[in-house]
Amino acid sequence: MKRKLLDILACPIDKHYPLELFEVSSENEVIVDGALFCTECSRYYPIIDEIPVMLPDDLRNKNEDLDFLAKHKEKLPEKIVKQGRPSHLD
Questions:
Q1: What number of other Cβ atoms are within 10 A of residue 89's Cβ?
Q2: Alpha-carbon span 48 to 25, nearest angstrom
Q3: Cβ contacts of residue 29 below 8 Å, gap of 6+?
Q4: pLDDT digits (tens, 9 = 90+) for 3-49
Q5: What average pLDDT score do residues 44-65 get?
Q6: By the 8 A CB rule, do 81 and 33 touch?
Q7: Which domain covers residue 65, as residue numbers?
Q8: Domain count along the chain
Q9: Residue 57 and residue 37 in contact, taking contact as beta carbons nearer than 8 Å
Q10: Does a structural domain hold residue 86?
């Protein structure tokens, strides 16, 4: 995901803007892996292989979300890993 995309992205649930960015890995101005976080509703949206996955809760894959969190739990903040919506690690 190109960093300048942050200027136009809002939470698809409550339309909150801006979203917080947490980078896991990046190359130049491109975020390869990371997460976007809505401070209004506490939802996170993973960035996987440069693509932000910004789906509503009912279209998200819980197992994929949990795998993403487990893989990056050391580099993401607790508010995403332990408290993020729609799924989080216990």
A1: 14
A2: 10
A3: 2, 3, 4
A4: 999 999 999 999 999 999 999 999 999 999 999 999 999 999 999 99
A5: 96
A6: no
A7: 3-81
A8: 1
A9: no
A10: no
